[in-house]
UniProtKB/TrEMBL annotation:
<dbReference type="GO" id="GO:0016788">
    <property type="term" value="F:hydrolase activity, acting on ester bonds"/>
</dbReference>
<feature type="domain" description="AstE/AspA barrel-sandwich hybrid">
    <location>
        <begin position="262"/>
        <end position="329"/>
    </location>
</feature>
<keyword id="KW-0862">Zinc</keyword>
<dbReference type="InterPro" id="IPR016681">
    <property type="entry name" value="SuccinylGlu_desuccinylase"/>
</dbReference>
<dbReference type="InterPro" id="IPR050178">
    <property type="entry name" value="AspA/AstE_fam"/>
</dbReference>
<dbReference type="GO" id="GO:0019544">
    <property type="term" value="P:L-arginine catabolic process to L-glutamate"/>
</dbReference>
<dbReference type="Pfam" id="PF24827">
    <property type="entry name" value="AstE_AspA_cat"/>
</dbReference>
<dbReference type="InterPro" id="IPR007036">
    <property type="entry name" value="Aste_AspA_hybrid_dom"/>
</dbReference>
<dbReference type="Pfam" id="PF04952">
    <property type="entry name" value="AstE_AspA_hybrid"/>
</dbReference>
<feature type="domain" description="Succinylglutamate desuccinylase/Aspartoacylase catalytic">
    <location>
        <begin position="51"/>
        <end position="245"/>
    </location>
</feature>
<dbReference type="GO" id="GO:0019545">
    <property type="term" value="P:L-arginine catabolic process to succinate"/>
</dbReference>
<dbReference type="InterPro" id="IPR055438">
    <property type="entry name" value="AstE_AspA_cat"/>
</dbReference>
<keyword id="KW-0479">Metal-binding</keyword>
<dbReference type="GO" id="GO:0008270">
    <property type="term" value="F:zinc ion binding"/>
</dbReference>
<keyword id="KW-0056">Arginine metabolism</keyword>
<keyword id="KW-0378">Hydrolase</keyword>
<protein>
    <recommendedName>
        <fullName>Succinylglutamate desuccinylase</fullName>
    </recommendedName>
</protein>
């Protein structure tokens, strides 16, 4: 296997847990460096790029569509059908969970970022992996004068009334001040945007909080095993990402895509350790299902819908005690 094919098959290398025969190299257009299992750095040969982009996928190992999208983009870069005009860091977050088609092995990595991994009593491979990913991102973003973007791609556990949507972390600066980025997310095919109101342990919150990056958790369809994804659902997403890394800017066609709907988080349901705790929604409830005021949505802590209508997101009764079992949203009215 020659050098280019070796590293180009980044997904296979990640799944088998081996390093490539060469850990760094170049094409006619960019340098590449394998930084570790599931971590690949690419930088253009010519001109000083003004933009640094992180694209991560596979933080949850059963969410495979984004991983396949990243591999397709990488194939285009190595075949020279996609140009590179930015610094690019590609991350497959949880290699062991990807190998086993599990959401996680011991604990949810997307609750550990921002140093929260240090509070875990007994270190695990996943807490150590979060530490590594934080340090890798620090080295990638620190001392960079240009723009910073982080797209953390996921898929949802259950069906959704919006097939593609984004979750944006809370930050001191209103997101409206970066309308160009919000518009780009619409061009990327996101039908809805959800705005958090409190800090989280997510990867996108870490990059936004630590580096002031334009960060978004992109939810693309429903979790399925490798080979079962209909990637045509995400053509607009892949096209927009390709344009982003090819031009090094948030170019967009104003003639396409109406703006995404905007939702604000108004409540969280946290799973208590009481034996009577129960999430009072059916297992087949879609994300963004609306509930009218007064509806009781959890037992023991007695969470009720307080607004005229609230929409449920990420309902999951099986999370660990103390973690979020669901979000409740209010639709922003223009």
């Amino acid at each position: 296997m020659n050098q280019q094919i070796d590293i180009q098959d980044f997904l296979s290398l990640t799944l088998i847990g081996e390093q490539p025969s060469c850990r760094k190299g170049h094409t006619n257009y960019f340098n590449w460096q394998w930084l570790g299992v599931g971590i690949l750095l690419l930088e253009p040969l010519h001109d000083r790029p003004l933009l640094s982009v992180v694209i991560s996928a596979g933080i949850h190992g059963n969410e495979t569509a984004p991983v396949e999208i990243v591999q397709q983009i990488l194939n285009g870069l190595f075949s020279n059908t996609i140009t590179l005009s930015c610094r690019l860091l590609l991350i497959f977050g949880n290699p062991q969970a990807l190998r086993e088609n599990k959401r996680y092995i011991h604990a949810d990595m997307n609750r550990m970022f921002g140093g929260r991994w240090q509070k875990i009593l007994h270190a695990t491979d996943e807490s150590r992996r979060v530490d590594l990913l934080e340090q890798t991102m620090i080295q990638f973003f620190d001392k960079q004068d240009g723009g910073k973007i982080h797209l953390d791609m996921h898929t949802a556990i259950r069906g959704s009334h919006h097939i593609r949507f984004g979750v944006l972390p809370v930050r001191p600066i209103p997101w409206e001040q970066d309308q160009k980025f919000l518009n780009w997310l619409g061009v990327a095919g996101l039908e809805a945007l959800v705005f958090h109101q409190s800090p989280l342990g997510s990867f996108s919150h870490f990059s936004c909080d630590r580096f002031n990056a334009l960060s978004c958790t992109m939810e693309l369809g429903k979790a399925l095993p490798f080979g079962q994804n209909n990637l045509t659902q995400f053509t607009s997403t892949q096209k927009a990402i390709t344009q982003l890394i090819s031009t090094g800017s948030l170019l967009q066609d104003d003639a396409i895509h109406s703006p995404p709907l905007q939702y604000k988080v108004v409540q969280q349901i946290i799973r208590s350790n009481h034996q009577s705790f129960q999430l009072l929604v059916s297992p087949d409830t879609f994300n963004f299902t609306p509930f009218p005021k007064g509806t009781r949505l959890s037992q023991h802590d007695d969470t009720f819908v307080q607004k005229e209508t609230e929409y449920i997101l990420f309902p999951n009764p099986n999370v660990a005690v103390g973690l979020r079992a669901a979000l409740l949203l209010e639709l922003h009215k223009n």
